[in-house]
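Explain this protein:
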Amino acid sequence: MTRTLTTLEGLHALYGEPVPAALRKVVPQLTPSYRAWIEGSRFCVISTVGPNGTDGSPRGDDGPVVRVADEKTLMMPDWRGNNRLDTLRNIIRDPRVALLFLIPGSKTTVRVNGRAFLTDEPEVLQSFEQRGKHPATVIVIEIDEVYIQCAKALMRSGLWGRDDAETVPTVGEILAEVTNGEVGCGDYDATYEEKAQPRLW
């Protein structure tokens, strides 16, 4: 039987006290440096929680993935995708969100925790126009805390210095497996990026 930790005391006994810098780096709003970092990020993962479980969704854009409205507020356009709406449904039911921002080549990541709501205010949607298109909604994130994350995870993984795409199944292969061949496989992979281009925004 696997040994299970069930108390905070037991957990803390294994790890000891936090490194002081790990606590001092946390601030309740964007500083100039944190703002510059986030405005330089084209990709993040937004995590949410709801009555049906948790969701972590990748988000990317041609330019900053979020707009900094002020030192306490970020705005993220929700471009149309597969219409699962897992993230958006969760936000409506439970506003807690966590974001992890990455920049290619940087071993640093920046984390934001806070609360979010959705808006479909026409003027807000229009302000995010891309190639004549507008997002269906905008996620407005109210920051509770922001902090850099230790670089060790990206150092260990060598994330930016390798290309392992050939070592894992493709999306087409996965779809073919889970749909008994009804969807996916070679043609799906060969044509996906071309077909997706008109629907990126």
Q: What stands out?
A: Strands lie at 43-50, 53-60, 67-70, 73-78, 96-102, 109-119, 137-149. The two ends are 49 Å apart (CA to CA).
